[in-house]
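Working notes for the structural subgroup meeting. M.R. asked for a predicted model of this chain before we commit to crystallization trials. I am recording the input and output together here so anyone reviewing the notebook later can reproduce the run.

Input as submitted:
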Amino acid sequence: NENYVDSYKSYLQSRNIVIENKEQIAVTIIGSNALLRTFTDIREQLTSIFNTNMSNSNASLLSGMVLGQKSELPQELTEQLQRTGTTHIVSASGFNVIILYILAKNVLSRTNKSVQIYTSIVLIFLYVLLIGTYILPAWRAAIMLTILILGQLVGRSISIWIVLLFATSILLIQNPFNWLNISVQLSIVSTMGMFL
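Returned structure, recorded in token form:
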């Protein structure tokens, strides 16, 4: 069994894939994509800044809430969050994407509408790249929000159900096994629940 694990690790490494966070079973492609590597480096630098300037529990909580990095949470804090049913607050998700959009729109409120929209879309996708390509609910939200924003720009109203179906299709085209990801399933169901 250990030989199988070692050979599988070697196989993944030969494809420039390393396991970044065992709890999330997150994989990041290193080396073959300079853009992803750059965002991974920035994320690590921000985590380091948080750790340097805050207590361990505050830094890990902020890293989880802003960057989706839950691996550094102290065991005691993790247990407290589990007991209270609030572990979701230390996860970067679609909610973060919407907050970023609202902030960007407010900061850019004195510019014309197209500058607001295009800048907001760029910031949304930069943020999603920053938190990691494996945080699929954030990708779903970014895709949906982008479609809705562009529809607003051209004066078209688009059915939220079609937008949800399109965003889900993109995630499944990218990787059909994303459907097995519980965070994707919960994200889709919770989005459906908001609009029923």
